[in-house]
Task: structure prediction
Amino acid sequence: MFSKFRKKMNDPAFKKKFWIYTAVMAIFWAKMSIVQGGIFTLDIENANEAAILAFNPISSIFLLFGVGILLAGRKGLLASYILGSVLLYVNVLFYREYHDFLTIPMLGQAANLAGLGGSITKILAVTDIFLFVDVFVAVFLLFYLKPARLQSFVPKRKEGLILAVIAIPLFLVNLGWAQTERTELLQRAFDRNMLVKYIGVLNFHAYDIVLQGQTEAKKTFADSNELVPVLNYLNEKETEPNSEMTGVAEGKNVILLSLESTQTFVVDNTLNGEELTPYFNDLKEEGAYFSNFYHQVKQGRTSDSEFLLDNSLYGLNRGAAFFTHSGNEYEATPEVLGEKGYTSSTMHANDETFWNRNVMYESLGYDEYYSKKDFDVTEEKSYGWGYLDEYFFSDALEKMEQMEQPFYNKMITLTNHHPFTLPEDKKFIKEGDTSSTTLNRYFQTIRYQDEALKQFVEKFKKSDLYEDTILVIYGDHFGISENHQQAMGEYLDKDINAYEQFQLQRVPLLMIGEGIEPKEHDTVGGQIDLRPTIMNLLGVEDENPIQFGQDLFSKDRREMMITRDGDFANEEYVGVKGSCFDRETGEKVEGEACASGFKEAEEELALSDSVVYGDLLRYLDQTELIEEKDSSEQQE
Ligand code: GP9
Ligand code: MN
Result:
C-alpha cells in the first residue's frame, strides 16, 4: 500500500492534491485545537493528556471531510468545512453558558434558546470572528479569486471513502491511548468534559449519535421484567422514614419554593460586611434547615430539579427528561396527592412551553399550571428573564389564597438567573469585586431575591394559609459554574479544587411548618429525597415503590447523595471524578476508600435510567406480580 502511495506521489497532480488535503485538514486541526485547548477548560493534568488532546481531532477530521468528499466531491469538502466550523462554534457558545457539550436531545430543545434572551449577548465575544476567518478565506478563494490551481483540484469520491475509512484505525488508536488514562472510557461516559478531553468534541458528537440510537431502542424493547433488578435494589436499600415525623403535617397545604440558582455558600455569608441573604439567615432558625443538601441536576437544570422532586427518580445524563420522556407513564407526587384529595398546581412566570413544561406537567398529573400569561406581567415589572420575583410572589400568594385546600403548589422564581442583571433601583448591595463579573452581579441578584422572599413570607405569615401549610424552600441548582472557579476562590479565600467545587453544589433546603422542629440538620441528602420526606410529613402512604430517595428525617438513613456525574457524598467521603476526599476536612484520601461509593452510584444511576428509558412505570400495576414471581423463584 505504501509503495503504491509513494508511486502516486511521483505524479505531480496527485502530489498537489495530497498537499491541499493536508493543508485543509491541518488548518481545521489548528482551529479545533485552539477551541479544545484554549476555550474549553478540560483540566489537562499531564503531558500524556495534552498529547491525546492534540491527537484526538485527527480521526474526526478524516471522517468529516471523507464523508463530505464521498457525498459531493469538492463542494462536499467545503460543506464539511463549514458545517464543522459552525458545529465547533455552537459548542463554544453552549460551553460558555453551561460548561457542558450539546447532545442530540438538547437540539430538540431549541425553543429554550429563545429564552436565553439576555444571556446570549453575554456569551458572544468579538474575537470569535477569528474562528471563521478560514471559512471566509476559503469561500473567497473558491468563488471570487478562483485560481487555476484550485480549479484543477478535483477531489474524487473514492478518495473521500479512503479518508473516511482511515478515520477508523485513527479513532481506535485515539481510544486505546485515552484508555491508558481512563479505563472503560465509553462505558463510564458520565462526564462529557472528560469524554471531550479524550476523544475530542467531534468524535463526541458521533458517539452521542450512537447513544441516541441505543436510547430509542431501549424503550422499544423494554418489558416488565426489567423492573425486577430495580425493585430488588430498592428493597435492599430501603430505610424506614422517621415515624415521629409521620403525619405531623397531615392534611396541610404544601408550598414548594424553588429558588433559582441559589447555592448554599451564600447563606450566612457577606460581601463588604453586608449579609447576602439576611432574611433567609433568620428564617432558617424557624424550621428544619439542611446544610448538606445537594442539587442533582444535569442538562435539564431547573426541569431536572422538578423531575427529581416529583418522581424521586434521577434526571438523565443527556438532555432533559422533561423533553425526551414527557410521554412516559409517571406516578408523581401531584397524582398521588390528587388521590388523597389534594389539588396540585405549579407556578412559573415564564413562557408555558419552556422546558416543555406544558406537556410534562400534564404527565406528572398537575391540575393547574400558572405560566407567564396568568400573571400580571408588564414591562415595568419585568427585567432580564422576565417577571421580577417580588411581583411573582405577590400574585402567587393571591392565587393561593383562592385555591381549594388542601393544595400542593410549586413556585419557581426567575430573577436570580444568569446573567444576573437587575434594574438600578433593585440593587440593594454593591457589586462584588472579584475577577468574574458574573459572580459580582450574582451577589446582587441573590440579595434582591432575599428581599422578595422576605416580602412574600411576611405576607404569607399574616395570611390565613400560614397555619395550614408547610413551606419547603430549596435551591434548584448552581448559579456560578466551574468557569468562575478562580473568582469563587477569591471570594471564599481558598483554592477551589475538585472537592471544593463539589461542595459548592450544595443548595439550601428549609422546611417550615407546625410540627417541624427548628433545627439544623447535617445529614447528606439531595433533591431525590424531597418526595419521600414530604410524603412522610403529610402521612401519605405513597404506593409507588420506584423511588430512589429516602426521608431526610429518617434515623437510619443511608447517608448518600449521588450526582448525575456518578460522583457522590456519603457520611465519610466525597468521591469526585475518580478522586476521594474526606467529606469534612476535604483532605485527599487514597482512592480505595471511595471505590464502593462509586460503584453504588453507577449502579443506582443505571437502574434509575432503565426506568426512564424503558418507560417502566407503565408496568407499575404489575410490580406485585413481579415481586411474587421473583420471591417464589428465589425459594425454588
Ligand atoms: C426558566 C427557568 C430557568 O423557565 O426554569 O431555567 P434554567 O436555565 O434555570 O433551567
Ligand atoms: Mn434554574
